[in-house]
Amino acid sequence: GGVVHRQSLSDTILIFDNHLNFIEKPRVRNAVERALKKSGGRCVGVEVRSLEEAVEAVDSGACYIQFEKVSPKDLEKMIREIRKISDKIIVGAGGGITLENIEEYAATGVDMIVTSAPYRAKPIDVTTIIEKT
């Protein structure tokens, strides 16, 4: 089974790649630090695409990182490096994860997997039969 990891900004703040386009360098560090100042104590996560960005996020105080569109092979290597820096950081993977490759991503050591596959799944036919007794 799975759970929704974030309902809204009231749960956690997730800084997306698009947000980083509007932040001066070092983008990840500045975005995380700004978000933490205004977070009201909420967890701040950041979407990253490289080991360098992940290290910057961890060093800036992010409570989780979400690797986006990284292959399982590369992801496994990056997770090993991140765990040397912090064994407490929550590591997620997202982008391009499907029912066909989810097991491969799960084997990398991630703490969470983000996928929109359930939204594209065929609906299940649920029927209720009420009988008079």
Provide the residue-averaged pLDDT: 91
Low-confidence stretches: none
CATH architectural arrangement: Alpha-Beta Barrel
Strand segment tally:
5
Contiguous helical run count: 6
Largest sheet: 5 strands, parallel
Classify the fold: give the CATH topology.
Answer: TIM Barrel
Measured as a percent range, the helix fraction is 25-40%
Termini Cα gap: 36 Å
What's the helix-strand series? EHHEHEHEHEH
Shape: globular
Radius of gyration: 18 Å
CATH superfamily: Aldolase class I
Q: Label the structural class.
A: alpha/beta
* Arrangement of strands in the largest sheet: 1-2-3-4-5
Strand content: 15-25%
Q: Could you describe the 3D structure shown?
A:
The protein has 133 residues and is α/β, with parallel strands linked by helices. It has one domain (12-117): TIM Barrel (Alpha-Beta Barrel), CATH 3.20.20. The protein contains six helices and five strands. It has helices at residues 17-20, 27-38, 51-60, 72-85, 102-106, 117-120; strands at 12-15, 43-48, 64-68, 90-94, 112-114. It has a five-stranded parallel sheet. Strand 4, helix 5 and strand 5 (112-114) form a beta-alpha-beta unit. The longest helix has 14 residues, at 72-85. It starts with 11 loop residues before the first strand and ends in a 13-residue tail after the last helix. The model has no long low-confidence stretch (mean pLDDT 91).
